[in-house]
Write a structure and sequence with these properties.
Blueprint: H1 2-10, H2 14-27, H3 32-44, H4 52-65, H5 72-94, H6 99-115, H7 120-136, H8 140-152
């Protein structure tokens, strides 16, 4: 179910990914990567759903609660996504709020890319963090650099 869920996530079949990853979690309630991947699926489909942010945060909390079962690299990825999600969640309702969390997500993803420049998930997270930080930054001189950095990532 986990592998099929990841395939569905990669194919942008988000509801199917959510469902399959839920099956994997029911089979192993300590499956940190399944919680993380389900958080990604829910994060991508959260547009217009006011409860999606809370469900995503809950999945991330559970992924981190069981992160001792993960390799350090995967744990770092979950932690980076937690910062990205928290920054986006804060920025949604309060304009410029969340920039610190988005900057922290960017820093964490940049560190992952520096350690492994072939890790596409880390590059995507870096681009996402830069893109969203550009949208909420107060320093308009940084906006172009952040957007360009997002495109490069």
């Amino acid at each position: 179910a986990y592998l099929e869920g990841v395939r569905a996530l990669n194919a942008w079949r988000l509801a199917r990914a959510d469902s399959l990853l839920g099956v994997a979690i029911r089979a192993d309630s300590g499956f940190a990567l399944a919680y993380y991947r389900r958080a990604l699926a829910r994060g991508y489909q959260s547009s217009g759903d006011p409860t999606a942010g809370a469900r995503t945060a809950r999945d991330l909390d559970l992924a981190l609660r069981h992160a001792d079962r993960l390799a350090p690299r995967e744990r770092a990825m979950v932690e980076a996504y937690r910062e990205l999600h928290a920054g986006l969640d804060a920025a949604m309702g309060v304009g410029f709020a969340g920039t610190d969390r988005l900057a922290e997500a960017e820093r964490r993803y940049a560190a992952l890319v520096a350690r492994d420049s072939t890790w596409t998930d880390a590059w995507y997270g870096l681009a996402d963090a830069r893109f969203h930080r550009a949208g909420v930054t107060r320093d308009w001189r940084q906006v172009q650099g952040l957007f360009n950095g997002a495109l490069r990532a």
